[in-house]
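Example 3.2
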Amino acid sequence: MQNDILLEDYLINKMKNQAKAEENKEGKKRSTKQQEEEEKVRKENEDLKDKKISEYGQTLLENGNKEHKIHLLSIIGEIEGHECLPQHNKTTKYEHVLPQLAAIEDSNEIDGLLILINTVGGDVEAGLAIAEMIASLSKPTVSLVLGGSHSIGVPLAVSANYSYVVPSATMIIHPVRMNGTVVGVAQTFEYFEKIQDRIIKFVVDHSKISYTDFKNLMLDTHQLAKDVGSILVGEEMVKKGIIDEVGGIKEALKMINTMIDQRKEAKGNP
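Structure, written as tokens:
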């Protein structure tokens, strides 16, 4: 009888141990599966981040001491408008940038926008559309001109709340040009005047230069050998009142972090 009880206890304990072992095994499987899922998500996020950098010139800066999330947008090459440019051209496509700017405004995670600019200009309507979107954002924005910010790149450079330029960067200011057939009538001239007026007014409204001074720079006949207009280098842009300050990425990041802190304090969220 006692042997039967001992055998029964032995079998019960064995069954419990087996059940426990199975449970541990299942637990390890679940843990491994969860780790694999987390690793997969992490890799997908990294791939997406790399894709955004390589295809759109955009990424999210989130490793700073301030713990702010700053969206980095690069505007490079030629601003592409309603017509596709050749494959070998470096371009910024406005149909990519506009939805991204709307998403930045709508996001509760992104605190500010840093814009890196190195553009030869491009489509006037597309460039102004991007500039107006940047100017209408409620979040802090800082622009940094690197290399050049020519033609319609001028409104893009001044569209941010605060603008920087590196000492070696250039800016070419010239009248509006048009490709294709141009009808030689008074109405064409008036149309050009209206386009130029829109550009001048935007720049004047978002910088410290006056309407007359900017128009004079646009129509200067002494600086460009085969064109009408002006070329400004580095500090000249600041002296003319177009760009706020000479500086690089260090100064730009410091400024946008300061602006984000001020915005949070004003909202009562230190």
